[in-house]
Design goal:
This protein is an all-beta fold and 131 residues long. 0% of the residues lie in helices and 50% in strands. The chain has a domain of 83 residues: Sandwich (Immunoglobulin-like). The strands form four sheets. A five-stranded mixed β-sheet has the order 4-1-12-7-8, with no helix packed on it. The protein is globular and about 35 Å long.
């Protein structure tokens, strides 16, 4: 049976002048047997209005938007059978797929962007640190 390897990395977008925001993906690396249900957890810490995104990066490719939550329905369907559920009370946005495939082996990024009116200032991405 084939194993699907998923690497989870969190990204955080912040807006100048806003409160602290944090995105955590507690599972840094997981393996799932092909055909099994998979869930990638994403938790955040922020009290304001937000948009949430899941990105995927397949080997030797750039980032792609897998799915996004902007407002409205809390269950969001994405590409390739992925979906996520926004749970405001739990401050979570977990990514799920009913049946994992070998082609799902990739890096997955959960991101948060607060919804700041245009007049409040420009958004910026915090630079990553290289060790």
């Amino acid at each position: 049976m084939l194993s699907v390897t998923l690497l989870l990395l969190g990204m955080l977008f912040t807006a100048r002048g806003t409160g602290a925001q944090l995105v955590t993906q507690p599972d840094g690396h997981i393996s799932v047997s092909e055909g099994n249900h998979l869930e990638l957890r994403c938790n955040y810490s922020y009290g304001g209005s937000i948009n949430l995104f899941w990105y995927v990066q397949y080997p030797s490719q750039g980032l792609q938007v897998l799915l996004k939550y902007l407002s409205g329905t809390t269950r969001v369907k994405g590409i390739k059978g992925f979906e996520a559920e926004f749970k405001k009370d739990e401050k979570s946005f977990h990514l799920m797929k009913a049946s994992a495939h070998g082609s799902d082996s990739a890096k997955y990024f959960c991101t948060l962007c607060d919804t700041v009116p245009e007049s409040a200032g420009a958004a910026e991405q915090k630079p990553s640190q290289t060790l």
